[in-house]
Amino acid sequence: MHNLNVFKVLSFSILNLLLLTSCNNKFDRDDYSAYFGGEVTNPLNRYVLFLKDNKIIDTIPLDRNNRFFKKFDSLTPGLYTFKHEPEYQYVYFDKNDSLMVRMNSSDFDESIIFCGRGEEKNNYLMEMYLKNESDKDKMFAVFDYDIKKFNRYIDSSFATRKKFYETKKEKAKWNEEFDYFALSALYFPYYTKKEIYPLVHEIRTGEKVSDKLPKDFYDYRKEIEFNNHNLTNFSPFVKYLTYLLNNMAMEKVSSENNSLSDQALDLNIAKLNITDTLFENVDIKNTVLNNIAFAYLLEDQHIVNNQKFLDRYNQLSTDKSNQNEITKIGNSIQMLKEGNSLPALDLFTLTGEAVNSKSVIKGKSVIFFWTENAESHFVSVHKKVMDLKAKHPDYTFIAINVDDNQSKWTNALSNYKFENVTELRVKNFEELRAKWVITKIHRVIVTNADGTIKNGFVNLFDVKFADNLK
Prior knowledge:
Layout (H helix, E strand, L loop, with lengths): L3 H19 L11 E8 L5 E6 L2 E7 L5 E6 L5 E7 L2 E7 L4 E7 L3 H4 L1 E5 L1 H24 L4 H26 L3 H30 L29 H18 L7 H19 L3 H18 L3 H14 L3 H16 L10 E3 L5 E3 H4 L4 E6 L4 H17 L4 E6 L4 H9 L7 E5 L2 H8 L6 E5 L5 E7 L11
Parallel strand pairs: 1-7, 11-12, 12-13
Antiparallel strand pairs: 1-4, 2-3, 2-5, 5-6, 7-8, 9-10, 9-13, 11-14, 14-15
Helix pairs in contact: 3-4, 3-5, 4-5, 5-6, 6-7, 7-8, 7-9, 8-9, 8-10, 9-10
């Protein structure tokens, strides 16, 4: 997949040159100095962020050759994150490691190769990540299996991964501190499959298997160190925790005679309560509570239920900083309730003219969104609104593109002939996300004759969508 040997030769040449011009080329020093550098192909911006626990430590600029380099006078051993926005990955540093990384923004994860002191550990994490990602498409059919066949499949797959881990560990001779992450990258994707199985199996086959699972099916839960702060922001653990909390909450919540919104509220309040009892470490508890809150508020925009959820969240969380951010989202959702005016946004027309949303959205309108990165949705949503326009000529249908390139937007539209649609592009997506709470491309906003909100949270492909236009 990669020409690894060529990259290593080039990387070591660059690394050695930088080391020779910066300090003597000695490892195992008394200090905790470390080096991090590399090259970005097809860069999307002019910097690489270096983070610890989601907090930015340094912003490293790219030079004219799209390379970056940083000497850290003191870097505590542990797991870090590097980000070339919007993409990110992990990098692990032991004492005095010196690492170069190659990445291509067009194929980010698959392109990453580490080179230098510490490369074995980091290339292991990347290889394990890619192996786990490749499983996703294969697993849909596997979730259809009965429990015995499912267990045989995932156990066999896990045994292969464990052998891979053991081989890499023996070769690299890594320490116990890193081994904790190496094992987490091995075990948590396996645990996640087990947490997912009952729900997905029932959705795909109609068969409820929760009562048929072996008594020891979830025994691994007893071995998990939920209060180990090293795992708090580690993706394999975070993903696992999402499904674990969902399963545990579903066991406590009845869906009988409840609307979908009420079910979502009950389920997510149950997740908050489980988190409160499961985690003793305050920092970890707050992080998990925040994850639940962000996910819920951006998924279910029911005005009354959101306030009930926020009340319980605020009772449990002690993280004032994220409480404020989550409250902002809640307030933005409140601003979009029925009868309110849409907050003003800056938009562009096809000719590049800047316009304000207030001057465009004046009457009965259907406002939908699209991106050139999802072409099938782009086409299908336009065809859908043209069909609706024929049946509801009293409505104006407004398409808002969320991308940041004017010429790509106009070029994408030039390949099609979508009639009776007002085409606009948002000037600042972050403003759109903050004011209109747009986090999903399928979201639609319907306005009344006076331009006020009729329904701020609806899906155009909902079978009862047309009811909103009556």
